[in-house]
């Protein structure tokens, strides 16, 4: 049974009426009161709103009205899915390849995206890396999360080492600008931190070696191995590894101890090796000498050395082959009188998280 509701007349008298009653007369002052339900009130409000909207349409330009309609439709629809999921981080072979040309900038480069694509072909065709285990970050990528911004490169580096296990082979390749900045924590011998320059480094900042070491190097567990190939200026110790190998033109070499009492730079039991285009205070670049189109000297010489070195070469053998390729390019440039703006005079540099005999160690991806 429906509950009666209370109604007060303007004279103050209280009356009780059934829910479906629409009018009631006061027995004291004989005033007739019109009653409304909540449904009636809602319907009346809707009619008022609808009339107000029609009045606005009459006095509003058509193009503004249509723009508002489109905005309302867009708000009603679910947002498009822009970010595709990353591949599974678990697998024996994984790679992150970054090529940054800095299109539209005054410091534009011309061969870095090609370097990343060349490295991908090399890893898939020569080293047996599954194509879906390689994460490419270049300005040519369609997905927003594959553009080489600082945020995306950081995310990709974390993906590379996530859940790494024994026997994993991980590769990090960067072709683009590198630089130096003041060392604020006192862990650098020369007082300078090395850094990689993502596409948005002007607004978001660079990725310095301390962070790269923390993300890529320290999580490596026993049996896991990381190889980094850095084709950038000032890249000698950009992974902040504990030991640096310097090789002379006659093939002799020595290891420098770059360990710091202020910070641990090693791994969690794994091995990390970095092939850099030049020393920390040197510049590197690209040249058309190798292939007829602009190519990073470091990337090209590394791929060529691995291809021609034979099965399981030593790191020393690879460095010798890379140095020979660079010197050959210098000779061809000098002979042709065709110098580019790139500097190919720098020698490749190897840094490592392990202290070992260079020539006795095998290079296996």
TrEMBL record:
GO terms for biological process: proteolysis. Pfam families: Peptidase_C14. It comes from Arabidopsis suecica (Swedish thale-cress). Belongs to the peptidase C14B family. Residues 93-329 form the Peptidase C14 caspase domain. GO terms for cellular component: cytoplasm. This is Peptidase C14 caspase domain-containing protein. PANTHER family: METACASPASE-3, METACASPASE-4. GO terms for molecular function: cysteine-type endopeptidase activity.
